[in-house]
Amino acid sequence: MRIQGIKQARLMEESELCIAESAKFGTPAQMLVASRLLSHPDAYRRWESEHSQLMRRVSEHRYLNRQVVALRSTALNLLHRKAVFEYLQERQLTRPQRHKLMAMFHSLKEYSASLIAEHGNYLRGASSYWCSHHLARRLMKDSAFAEPLLLYQERYTDFFRVHCDVELAESESEQQAVAPMRLLQPLLKKQLAEARQEILSMAWRPAKVWREVEIRKPTGDTERLRVLGDTEIARILARGARK
């Protein structure tokens, strides 16, 4: 059975609900990010504009099975987008290493401006990533967003960590330490590509036709109803100033 896709307005409404819920009931990281978005109107409007474009690429597909694949692809790309700042938070880097890391991923020459831009990318990317999970779970019942995507996230984190560690190693001792990692890079990259393809090609098999679909089925006597609907960066900047 072909199921009609979800309209962009519905995807946005659920995404906005996800941000509001994350600010109150999410994990500590989700609460921090969502609260920061909600308390800064300019940041929220920019996220809303970018997220709307992402949801348009999902909603442009007519049927739900194609929307599922589009949302998976979106989530994978968002996972990549937030990786730089997560690495910066995880690793205790020297000032030269932080500058080099920013130069690897930004065209901006000034370090502070690059860091602020990357922090914004993290806030918006992480928020949209969590919204993708929310939409997949609540509206699409897509099992790929459970263990398969979490496994991919672990593998990508490992790959990105190794990539950055290798690129930032400068002294002879550092080069020796990352030499085995350098040999692993092609294998990790190959495994990632295979995992991505497996996720995008996974069959969509919702356990049942859930209530969201039943509501949208025409019955002949229904009518359309209204749908109801900066601590970390300061720490890093301060640490950089002390180096």
In terms of topology, how is this protein built?
Elements: H1 8-25, H2 28-39, H3 41-59, H4 64-81, H5 83-90, H6 95-105, H7 111-140, H8 147-168, H9 172-201, H10 211-216, H11 231-242
Low-confidence runs of at least 5 consecutive residues: 208-230
Distance between the termini: 61 Å
User: Which sequence of SSEs, written as H and E, runs from N to C?
Assistant: HHHHHHHHHHH
Structural class: mainly alpha
What Rg is obtained from the alpha carbons, in whole angstroms?
20 Å
Tally the helices: what do you get?
11
* Overall body shape: globular
Beta-strand content = under 5%
Tell me how many strands there are.
0
Mean pLDDT: 85
User: Main β-sheet: number of strands, strand sense, barrel status?
Assistant: none
| Residues in helices, as a percent range | over 70%
Describe this structure in words.
The structure is a single chain. This protein is mainly alpha-helical. It has a domain at 8-141 and 231-242. It contains eleven helices and no strands. Helix 2 packs across helix 3 (41-59) and helix 3 crosses helix 7. It is globular.
Write a concise synopsis of the structure shown.
This protein is mostly helical and 243 residues long.
Tag the structure with descriptive keywords:
mainly alpha, single chain, globular, 11 helices, 243 residues
